[in-house]
Design goal:
Elements (H helix, E strand, L loop, with lengths): L18 H10 L3 E5 L5 E4 L1 H7 L6 H10 L1 H13 L3 E10 L2 E13 L5 E11 L1 H12 L8 H25 L4 H28 L7 E3 L1 H11 L10 E6 L7 E3 L1 H19 L3 E9 L4 E2 L5 E2 L1 E8 L6 H4 L17 H11 L3 E6 L6 E2 L2 E2 L3 E8 L9
Helix pairs in contact: 3-4, 6-7, 8-9, 9-11
């Protein structure tokens, strides 16, 4: 069961441990934690819970919807409040909006300042998706051999180097044979594609070491546009709208990683409009804030990358961030996965929705477009000198 925590603001039982450390511990957990008052109002929610529920802020209405969709969770919370005893469910299906997740759930009483139940409840939800995937692989014979990504990449790259060298040598041996040149070209293209795929798998699955320094988001976007060939002057037929809020403070993060992320999103927008249409980049302060486990408010900024392309069918929207799913003939299906991971490591969110730049009539058809939305935590304001 989850360890009991004393106090309505997650006050440590050991007074030698400060609240800031509790804040860092709870916000660093990969399991979702939601602390509710006896009146079922959220008192503290960690980032993992918001990611699991797919929301930027957990309100009383969010909790009511969650309990309404998951009556088993409501019964556990009610029983814990009534009895003061912890409860657990080894495997349950959590419905969060349109998604369903297999989770292990634990509900424990939150002790009041006197050390007795009555301060509310603590809900812990552990995502079982990876465990279930491994179990299914075992039953189907698709066993996980626990190979490290770096080791597997090394084993793949070695023969690829030999294949590439042999293809280049054959191309030089038959410079005047068009068919030989064509076949060698196919081999080299395939080798380069596999090598690129291996690099992307390593980036997605390997540890990411990101810098933590002040970053001007508009400088990041301008650099990403420059690398995509849209700045300072876009190609003919492409209109780039920069709807920026110049008053935004810096974010804390890794400028290079953020540039790669937004470059990917912008290049996707360019491909969506097929070099004829409008791309809009919009920045603003996020209207909603998030409350940390310590009760501090964290403010976020939002970046939106929209296009006037045909959009993505509704039935494919939920799969956009699934590894190896792609709508492009030559895509790897890892670009958006990597983007989402980088943004998550910055403490933000990345998601997509249909509807981009205002609908336009082109070739007699209405274009819906897509919008990719990113939230990133802003630097806290500097405290005035005492």
């Amino acid at each position: 069961m989850l360890p009991l925590i004393t106090g309505s603001a997650l006050i440590a039982t050991d007074r030698g441990i400060n609240l800031s450390l509790w804040h860092d511990i709870i916000d660093s957990l990969t399991d979702a934690i939601i602390v509710l008052s006896p009146a079922m109002e959220p008192q503290a929610v960690n980032p993992a819970a918001k990611t699991m529920l797919g929301v930027s802020q957990v309100s009383a209405a969010t909790v009511a919807d969650l309990v309404h969709q998951n009556d088993w969770l409501g019964r556990m919370v009610g029983a814990c409040l009534d009895s003061g005893q912890g409860l657990g469910d080894m495997e349950a299906v959590l419905t969060a909006g349109p998604r369903e997740l297999a989770v292990r759930a634990e509900v424990s009483p939150l002790l009041n300042t006197e050390g007795r139940p009555g301060g509310g409840v603590i809900i812990l939800l552990h995502d079982l998706s990876h465990e279930k995937g491994a179990a299914e692989a075992a039953t189907t014979g698709d066993l996980n051999l626990r190979l490290s990504p770096a080791g597997l990449a090394h084993e793949v790259k070695n023969p690829l180097t030999g294949i590439k060298g042999a293809a280049e040598l054959m191309a030089r041996m038959f410079p005047d044979d068009p068919r030989a040149q064509q076949y060698c070209g196919v081999i080299l293209d395939g080798v380069n594609r596999i090598a690129s795929l291996v690099e992307q798998v390593l980036m997605v699955s390997g540890p990411q070491r990101l810098a933590r320094e002040p970053v001007n988001i508009h400088m990041v976007l301008h650099q990403a546009m420059r690398m995509a060939g849209l700045y300072p002057q876009p190609p003919d037929g492409v209109v780039v709208v920069q709807d920026f809020d110049p008053s935004l403070p810096d974010v804390i993060g890794d400028a290079d990683a953020l540039e790669r992320t937004f470059l990917n999103l912008i290049k996707n927008a360019v491909e969506a409009i097929d070099l004829s249409g409008t791309i809009r980049l919009h920045t603003r302060i996020e209207r909603e804030f998030r409350t940390t486990a310590e009760g501090r408010r964290r403010r976020f900024l939002r970046v939106e990358v929209s296009d006037s392309g045909p959009g993505i069918p509704e039935d494919q929207l939920a799969q956009l961030f699934t590894p190896f799913f792609t709508t492009k003939p030559a895509g790897t299906g890892l670009g958006l996965v990597l983007c989402q991971r980088i943004i998550a490591l910055h403490g933000g969110r990345l998601w997509a929705q249909r509807g981009g730049v205002d609908r336009t009539k082109a070739a007699g058809a209405s274009k819906d477009g897509m919008t990719f939305k990113v939230t990133l935590p802003m630097m806290p304001p500097e405290k005035p000198p005492q």
